[in-house]
Amino acid sequence: MLVDQSDYRLRYAALRERYEAEKARSESLAAQRRERVVKRARIRRFMDDLRQQVNLIAAFDEHAWNTLVDGVTVYAGDFMVRFKDGSEIRVAKAFV
Fold first, then answer.
1. Could you tell me if 43 and 56 are in contact, meaning their C-beta atoms sit under 8 angstroms apart?
2. First to last CA, the chain
């Protein structure tokens, strides 16, 4: 069976492009899964820490802070609290 080289190249290029797109999609999904596994582990650790609390937290708790907060960015009129789960809350200084 003889195949025309130009037809072969076109078909190969199309298949190669499809393969690369699927490979990129697969890698993206794998990365998302890894992120979710890490997030799940963080949430479980936090929930375990909360279960160990005997009383309600009535004062600043450094351990709870370090478990929840990834960072704080201070701006001129407010600040942003970035949590370890990726969520953020912007707080106006008037409420502090």
1. no
2. 79
The string of pLDDT tens digits covering residues 42-93 is 888 878 877 887 777 778 888 888 888 999 999 888 899 998 878 899 888 7
Separation CA 18–CA 20 (nearest Å): 6
Beta bridge partners of 69: 83
The C-alpha angle with vertex 84 and arms to 27 and 46, in degrees rounded to 5, equals 110
91 near 79, Cβ under 8 Å? yes
Tokens read off for 55:
């009383």
One-letter amino acid at 95 equals F
Q: Are 55 and 43 in contact (CB under 8 A)?
A: no
